Amino acid sequence: MPSSESKTGVVLLAAGQGKRFGGGKLTADFRGRPLWEWAAETAENANFSERLLVVGSDSLIGNRRGWRLIENLAAERGMGTSIAAGVRALTDCDRVVVMLADMPLVSPTHIGRLVSSQGVAFTQYHDGKAGCPAVFPRLVFPQLASLRRERGARSLDLADVELIAPIDERELADVDWAYDIERLNSAN
Predict the structure, then answer these.
(1) CA torsion sign, 103 to 163 to 113 to 158?
(2) Residue 71 C-alpha from the chain's centroid
(3) Is 103 in contact with 166 (CB distance < 8 Å)?
(4) Burial 14-42 (b: 16+ CB within 10 A, else e)
(5) Considering the entire predicted model, what is its pTM?
(6) Is the peptide bond prior to 137 cis by the omega test (within 30 degrees of 0)?
(7) Are residues 5 and 62 in contact, defined by beta-carbon separation less than 8 angstroms?
(8) Does the domain made of 8-187 have the CATH classification 3.90.550.10?
(9) What is the distance between the terminal CA atoms of the chain, rounded to a whole angstrom?
């Protein structure tokens, strides 16, 4: 978990249009609640000093206690614009964790392991690739704030990147298609 000495914020990306899903992905029911709330709850259990929820201009996601809603007017251009909008809106953080609202099974334990790293750390996927959630020190905030298109932070030339795999690979499940919710519901 974030230490009391450092100020670590979280940017939860929830501005995607969910086209493959057929729309309304993040507000779709998953185990009795809207899908995005699972990632939000994980972040709430990680004791961040600042919590930002980045949404698109036509989002059906409402405000949530303890979160600051950031509207990304360029969301249709891709995830990079949402990362940039969130990082630019941080007020006083030494580090930031970027999370995706369509990954409902990520645990606070995994987030804590990312935050305990010393520099940039991405989640390592089963194929060895880097992805979200990820943590970044203030030193790279300007690079994150300059992202303009679909490509996210992996596209940046960042030195000394650490990859951290979750203890349980099932935490990496994300929802892209409507059948993904059914698959996740039946898996546990």
Answers:
(1) negative
(2) 15
(3) no
(4) bbbebeebeeebbbbebeeebbbbbbbeb
(5) 0.90
(6) no
(7) no
(8) yes
(9) 26
User: CA distances (Å), 34 to each of 84, 160, 161, in order?
Assistant: 25, 37, 33
List the structure tokens of 7: 């100020």
pLDDT of the chain, 188 residues: tens digit per residue: 444 467 999 999 999 777 777 677 888 889 999 999 999 999 999 889 999 999 998 888 888 899 999 999 988 888 889 999 999 999 889 999 999 999 999 999 999 999 999 889 999 998 988 888 999 999 999 989 888 766 656 555 667 788 999 999 899 988 888 888 888 877 65
Per-domain residue ranges of the chain:
8-187
Q: Is 24 left (phi over 0), alpha (psi -120 to 50) or beta?
A: left
Which residues pair with residue 29 across a beta bridge?
Answer: 34
